Amino acid sequence: MTEFDTIAAISTPMGEGAIAIVRLSGDEAVEIADRLFRSPTGKQLKDVPSHTIHYGHIVDPKSGRIVEEVMVSVMRAPKTFTREDVVEINCHGGFVSVNRVLQLVLANGARLAEPGEFTKRAFLNGRIDLSQAEAVIDLIRAKTDRAMNVALQQMEGRLSKLIRELRQTILETLAHVEVNIDYPEYDDVEEMTPRLLKEKAEYVRGQIEKLLSTATQGKILREGLATVIIGRPNVGKSSLLNALAHENRAIVTDIPGTTRDVIEEYVNVRGVPLRLIDTAGIRETEDIVERIGVERSRQMLKKADLILLVLNYHEPLTEEDERLFAMTEGMDVIVIVNKTDLPQNIDIERVKELAAGRPIVATSLLCERGIDELEKAIADLFFGGELEAGDLTYVSNSRHIALLEQAKKAIEDALSGIDVGMPVDLVQIDLRRAWELLGEIVGDTVHESLIDQLFAQFCLGK
Amino acid sequence: MEYHGGSYDVIVIGAGHAGCEAALASARIGAKTLVITLNLDMIAFMPCNPSIGGPAKGIVVREIDALGGEMGKNIDKTYIQIRMLNTGKGPAVRALRAQADKVLYQREMKKTLENQKNLTLLQGKVERLIVEDGVCKGVITQTGAHYYAKAVVITTGTFLRGEIIIGDIKYSSGPNNQQPSIKLSEHLEELGFELVRFKTGTPPRVNSRTIDYSKTEIQPGDEEPRAFSYETTKYITDQLPCWLTYTTEETHRIIDENLHLSPMYSGMIKGTGPRYCPSIEDKVVRFHDKPRHQIFLEPEGRETEEVYVQGLSTSLPEHIQRKLLETIPGLEKAQLMRAGYAIEYDAIVPTQLWPTLETKLVKNLYTAGQINGTSGYEEAAGQGIMAGINAAHRALGREEIILSRSDAYIGVLIDDLVTKGTNEPYRLLTSRAEYRLLLRHDNADLRLTELGYRIGLISEERYQAFLAKKEAIEREKKRLQTVIIKPTPEVQEVIRQAGGSELKDGIRAADLLRRPEMTYEHIQKLAPADEDIAPEVAEQVEIQIKYEGYIQKSLQEVERLKKMENKKIPEDIDYDAIQGLATEARQKLKQVRPLSIAQASRISGVNPADISILLVYLEQGRIARVSNE
């Protein structure tokens, strides 16, 4: 049960504002923050007075690397919003870094807050007026149902299938350990040895790691939506890039492992993290296709999550424009018809035909017109048009990652238990925890299923 | 002829494993208690396995003992073999199991009941309860006697409308051809109880003289003296072995060919059987590619040649049972003494009970044991002692006693029953306990003696010994936390011999003990204590230090559980008046009527959003209450 643990969430709207705040509430809020916070003076948050703010860094305790420069406020119960201990970590705005801080907080003992949970706690702890009771209930009901819808949508397909398979593997292993315990004399059941258990645990860990690296949503959260801008020379690719970057404070990075001549920049559009690929090429007004060749750029486009295809409003469609449409068939494309400040020469009907239902946005980047519409189109695409920025798609994604990370940690605990020679039935505690955590992702933690498995898998009886 | 038979504080119906514990607990607490049984010669009868204990179940026996119950003491006086199981695994799953001398077990238990102060034994058949305004006030027997009491405990096992089935023969009967209890079952239905039909079975028994043991493997008991009860000091050392053999392909062929004669498959048996003890025909059907199944031959006592054929539970016709025996190595010429059979019986749906085992429908009426849908002597006894305690406390105007899931396996058992119900005869398994590392065989006394003493079931003498043990454990733990072991050549030698790596520096004794290869014995050698450390103290010190990390983790989870248990839900809450609850959750809540948020959250179909809503209402104190009309 989850009513009394420490919860955390990003409590500022995403993609807006100069700072973003990760808020923790609960008994362990200060303790968890202390695991991540390094002050230049060496002070610890547990020692600071209540309602004070402190400068320092958030450091990943595993790697020892600095993740973010922060101001941390410590507010102890009961004079806080939730009437519990509250810590607020003020980060620089921008999706990627604040999200990493949140992930660290979650990996170090906090649970991601459910929608409306801070309010709920405030309420349960007597902070909120009686008249708001019904509203809170509506909130819980509505948000939970919606979160479930979102979770279900995301669960369709590969991720959920993989997780279910993984859970089944763990379950069979658990049942095996259990049958050895509850029926020690059934000699025809193979004994689950530490070695065998280790093999299973390592397999599960490998699978979780694979999931963490391949789950698209997870990748997007950590790395941003891989975005490529394409278009003929002089259609305004560079202006588009600048407009997006200018508005959203791009971070220029040279990603190791990608082609040396491809530089990436991060921008945050209404809470959607975009990783703009080949910005150098665009700034030199060269198109990616020209620069790295048709075949490689085709590969690059295939890997992209989002393609911004820029056309010139002032000129008729060319063969090259048509070729770009052909190359991006079936991909997530937003068509941008730029230079609307000039007279129209483009055949809009033909553009609509080529776009085949994918969004078309008219802009004049020069006059800074249509940028809002473009950003909205990007956000709509990402959030499926159903959810506004800062809402649940992001939350549930983050939640899944957090759960996977926790499951991985549980497996690692199990493995280190095996290494120091702990008995199988103790190691099993951590293995079972991993199984439960994975179950939370797919919304399935029915206790009885272990017992069902036990009797389905083994032949027992008097 | 109707007549007034007498007045008591507590009446217990039935004297099986649940009834005996209920009656003894009640009488020992000081309630004037009457126990009525169909047959005084069948007190504490074991209709199935002649054994007590095993994983989870053995821990229940220790818990019963720590609470001041009788099962542990009684088996310690009467076992023919005892073994510690799972010794190669962690401390959490170790468990004792004893083979009982069945007849002696009954005789000893009967003697204990007969000599118990405040306790009256009576042979008779209860057919009705005296219920006035929803309150149970006594019982009426077949002979017309009216016995009055402030609380009544029903522990009728598999007797309620029992029916024995062998092949195509089916007849009304309790276990082992005892007379069944039919009218009481009908009466419970009249009172409004929802009953379910369960089924269980038992294997044939054969004559030991006709077994060729040379074709089987011997299974001896432990040489080390062992006992269930913390009070036992005399150990039985003269033990009898059990024997292991296997079914053959021929056995399976006969089963396959005669499956149509099995009442399980012909549709004659409608009751739900337990998955954990399937009949041999079930096993052959479900695990068809398994070439053989284990058969344990268990002697039923010292004064009898009867042997229990564990693993061959069946309801196939008698002549097929004979054929089956002929195919099993060692049993080719075995004389069948009793045929195996299946038994169907009525059980009450256990979600109709409060966690005290009092029924929600009829006040002051308690039920315990197989009637509540469980199976197993230990499960029955565990419920029996709790029902006995609560019935006596009701009669004497004392508090209710409920064990939590983190206190005892008995707590897990009762909570599962009353919160989740069961759709098959319920058996305890270690995997049902989420805090099994805390619910160990070795620490049952540390968990429950305090409570047993407070209730009045543990003697002053035993309590003082318990306190002394507790102090000794703490003292020794503290010592090991402070004593430093230095890397002298002698120390390095001991460590090397244990297979560990040498010390670089001085180390606290406790830290050294945490190394997997080190035992308390090693530490005692390296840093001897000034006082004599009793083995049971050493055991605690070793376990508590060695597994501290895991124990701490479990304790933290228990902390969270306790917080939720402290959020109480009023008994008369009106769930219909709470808006926002999902329909399924509302139904389940109305049915189970959980006493705390913790219990509510364990009901299947009640999801976290419903719990949140419930919490909101509780915090607001705006609970609509059902009027008690």
3D architecture notes:
Chain A: One of its GO terms (cellular component) is cytosol. The complex is a heterodimer of chains A (about 450) and B (about 625). Chain A is built from 17 helices and 14 strands. Chain A is an alpha/beta fold and about 450 residues long. Chain A folds into 3 domains: about 120 residues, Probable tRNA modification gtpase trme, domain 1 (Gyrase A, domain 2, 2-Layer Sandwich); about 130 residues, Up-down Bundle (Four Helix Bundle (Hemerythrin (Met), subunit A)), CATH 1.20.120; about 160 residues, P-loop containing nucleotide triphosphate hydrolases (Rossmann fold, 3-Layer(aba) Sandwich). A 7-stranded mixed beta sheet of chain A has the order 3-4-5-6-2-1-7. A 7-stranded mixed beta sheet of chain A has the order 9-10-11-8-12-13-14, sandwiched between helices. By secondary structure, chain B is α+β, with helices and mostly antiparallel strands. Chain B has 21 helices and 22 strands. The model of chain B has no long low-confidence stretch (mean pLDDT about 95). At the A-B interface, helix 3, helix 4, helix 5, helix 16 and helix 17 of A face helix 8, helix 18, helix 20 and helix 21 of B.
